[in-house]
């Protein structure tokens, strides 16, 4: 289900007008789409950030433009001012609710692996999964249960359960999570004894004897 947001069409693209939009708490944006001319508009920055925070970056947003046209979009890209920590610009992608889209979905683990309780280390090399789905069937997240993993076990992309409404685009042999053996503590290096080899000692003794003979 799409989340509704009000939007205002933006025809004046002058810098002074864009600054005015930001000062009133809105963010300027553009809607792109396949076989669709770009549409410049603005939305409330707080409402947009709240929508993404509560529903994920793949949320379907229904933009009500000036109370007339309705555009179903996904947030494609956004820019934040690093000094003011404010949203500066947003790019939206217009979606057809009947056509598949390719997106990245966050992977989260659940449970505590048995191998971890035995001292193993949980490793997760893959944090996002590339999938293809209808816009309203994109999962908010993909949960992977790791509770039964022993030391040396792993879960691959091909191990994910079937019966889903999306197609996984990732290689099925890609590791999502694994439990590795505990790291061994490095051995303490043995202290070196500062002793001269016996041969050198004998030579030193001979040298001392020679010196005594010379003195005499």
Structure write-up:
By secondary structure, the chain is of the alpha+beta class. It folds into 2 domains: 3-94, Ribosomal Protein L25, Chain P, CATH 2.40.240.10; 101-180, RNA Polymerase Alpha Subunit, Chain A, domain 2 (Beta Complex). The chain contains 4 helices and 13 strands. It has a 6-stranded mixed β-barrel. The protein has a 4-stranded mixed beta sheet with strand order 10-7-9-12, with no helix packed on it. The radius of gyration is 32 Å and the shape is elongated. Keywords: Ribonucleoprotein, Ribosomal protein, RNA-binding, rRNA-binding. Belongs to the bacterial ribosomal protein bL25 family. CTC subfamily. It comes from Salimicrobium halophilum.
